[in-house]
Design brief:
The protein has about 575 residues and is an alpha+beta fold. The protein contains 13 helices and twelve strands. The chain has helices at about 50-60, 130-135, 180-195, 275-285, 310-325, 330-345, 355-360, 405-420, 435-440, 445-465, 475-485, 495-505, 530-545; strands at about 200-215, 225-240, 245-250, 255-260, 295-300, 365-370, 375-380, 390-395, 510-515, 520-525, 550-555, 560-565. The strands form two sheets. Strands 1, 2, 3, 4, 5, 6, 7 and 12 form an eight-stranded mixed sheet that branches. The chain has a four-stranded antiparallel sheet with strand order 9-10-8-11. Strand 3 (about 245-250) and strand 4 form a beta hairpin. It is globular. The chain starts with about 50 loop residues before the first helix and ends with a strand.
Length: about 575
């Protein structure tokens, strides 16, 4: 295998044998099932009953009928794209390389820097302990809520941890309008003044993100298509002259976490404060003269819902610290520094998807990112203009049996790449999938490979449809992605599958889990006038299954991270 790459986080050591994925052996797994993704034709799943709709969409994608939901279920096959679809090796078609600087109108904070981490591999180990800490302590907008997986980077609490309980507040308002960045910034400014007895020098905002499609492809050098949410985290900050770092959160409660910046090292800070502390540490490790700082954070991003609240926190901190200390990075340097904070300081081996989405997204666009080349394209994606909405369901699913499962899947992909003689699974073309699967002995590893290869193809097909203005036609691809994540990557849970099936039964054009899996959020592409009917169908299905009530909001593609007070010149 090639040397570790900062785009993918830590280079997890491969096991002597492929790790078990919890699935049972499958018949005839050495070849993909015939047929392309659902977008190539087939019944509209929204017209069918819930379970039948998802089976139809999965069948159109070449998947086996759904079996019992949750980890440990045998996987199913997802076929290759229909002939004539995009090649799996294609990158952003019309995009020029984007090495840094302003992207699509998202202005970098003046004088920011984050050169740390560029070209530097992460040294993180399995993310289960770090993500467990994050889900308990990370500053975000649902204070008493047990947390779960971050997008593409799931946490790993013990089985049963995070069970929903009464009194759990709902997430952000069910509104597609960007949250009031100015009002939230003023609130953070006032709270900073109360906490630290002086004015902040600035306030920065960083959004959460949703991955429209392209799950578990980033650490396989593939393609992703995220967009930023209207819900943001704000960070108010000011320099200190005594070398002390003081961190406060309006959501975590308690007093400030304090540590001299000279004493920052992995393991020195735990809980939510590890993320901003790690961001300062990563800048200093790169040789930047970042000194003491007071920082207060306030967030409207739900934690544990797969919406990348941790990436928002690290990106906002890097922007603030670099700006205050007169540094001037490009956006990729900021992203790599934020990634290094998670990889090396917190201990979470995440890829670069979340930081890229937080920093590079623009309003009314989805960010098409080739993780290998770092080329980007701002693809038109404005559901509201087409009479559609992205209904987002916070499933409130407790995270069960997920200890080490993210790392297992990553190791399985790396093992498969070595066996196939390719640097990453990105290098397995869709038309070569049958031969690749035939070369792999372990049926679980075959399923993991099949998901990654076909998911990359689904990203490319989705981008092609969006470029052509055919937004409604991406729905079956979203549903096929969910079937693949459920059956081949085995990262779904009953609450998630129930939400997907209920939304489809009520008329959604497509629906899927978003984020790393094992809980989190479901997105459903729906006609705007069917959104409440879809939400009610999910509520009814949850009540029948005796699940905790879900929460809902409408996700509108929104701007990336930026300085909001004082506004950039």
């Amino acid at each position: 295998m090639s040397a570790p790459d900062p785009r993918h986080g830590a280079d997890a050591a491969a096991p002597a044998e492929p790790p078990p994925g919890g699935g049972a052996p499958e018949p005839a797994a050495d070849a993909p099932a015939p047929g392309g993704p659902a977008a190539q034709g087939g019944p509209a799943p929204a017209r069918d009953a819930a379970a039948g709709a998802l089976r139809d969409a999965a069948g159109a994608a070449g998947a086996r009928p759904r079996q019992e939901a949750g980890p440990g279920r045998p996987g199913g096959a997802i076929g290759t794209p229909a002939p004539g679809g995009p090649a799996a090796q294609a990158g952003p078609g019309a995009a020029a390389p984007n090495p840094g600087g302003p992207v699509g109108g998202t202005e970098p904070a003046p004088g920011t820097d984050a050169a740390a981490g560029a070209g530097r591999p992460g040294g993180a180990v399995s993310g289960e302990d770090a993500r467990d800490r994050e889900t308990r302590d990370l500053a975000a907008s649902v204070p008493d809520r047990p947390d779960g997986a971050g997008g593409g980077r799931p946490d790993a609490p013990d089985a049963g941890q995070g069970a929903a309980g009464p009194g759990r507040p709902d997430g952000p308002p069910a509104s597609g309008r960007p949250d009031d960045a100015g009002g939230r910034a003023a609130r953070a400014e006032a709270a900073f003044r109360e906490a630290f007895g002086r004015d902040p020098e600035g306030v920065w905002a960083a959004p959460g993100r949703i991955n429209l499609i392209g799950e578990h492809t980033d650490y396989n050098d593939g393609f992703v298509l995220p967009f930023a949410l209207p819900h943001t985290l704000t960070a108010a900050a000011a320099r200190r002259g005594d070398g002390l770092l003081r961190l406060r959160s309006l959501q975590s409660g308690g007093g400030a976490v304090e540590i001299p910046v000279a004493e920052l090292e992995p393991g020195a800070v735990s809980g939510w404060a590890a993320y901003p502390a790690g961001s300062v540490w990563a800048l200093r490790e790169a040789g930047h003269p970042v000194g003491g700082m007071d920082l207060l954070v306030d967030s409207a991003i739900p934690t544990g819902a797969g919406l990348s609240s941790s990436a928002a926190l690290t990106c906002a901190t890097v922007l603030a610290a670099a700006d205050l200390h007169g540094l001037a990075p490009d956006r990729w340097e900021v992203a790599r520094t934020a990634q290094r904070a998670e990889n090396d300081f917190v201990g979470m081996p995440c890829g670069l998807l979340d930081q890229s989405a937080v920093l590079l997204s623009t309003e009314g666009r989805a960010l098409f990112l080739d993780v290998r080349s770092l080329e980007t394209e701002q693809v038109p994606f404005d559901p509201r203009a087409d009479g559609l909405t992205v209904l987002t369901v916070d499933t409130r699913a407790p995270h069960r049996l997920v200890g080490g499962m993210y790392a297992e899947r990553r190791r399985a992909c790396e093992h498969a790449a070595r066996v196939l003689g390719v640097p990453f699974l990105r290098d397995v073309p869709a038309d070569g999938l049958a031969g690749a699967l035939a070369a792999l002995d372990d049926p679980v590893v075959r399923r993991r490979v099949r998901h990654v290869v076909t998911e990359n193809a689904r990203v490319l097909e989705t981008v092609a449809l969006l470029r052509a203005g055919r937004l409604r036609e991406i729905g079956p691809l979203l549903t096929a992605s969910h079937a693949s994540l459920r059956d081949d990557y085995e990262v779904s849970v009953p609450e998630v599958d129930t939400a997907v099936e209920a939304a489809l039964s009520a008329g959604a054009l497509g629906a899927r889990i978003t984020g790393g899996g094992f809980g989190g959020c479901v997105i459903a592409l729906v006609e705007s006038d069917r959104a409440e009917a879809c939400a009610e169908a999910v509520r009814t299905a949850y009540a029948a299954a005796d699940f905790a009530p879900p929460a809902f909001f409408h996700a509108a593609p929104s701007p990336g991270a930026r300085r909001v007070l004082p506004p950039p010149a």
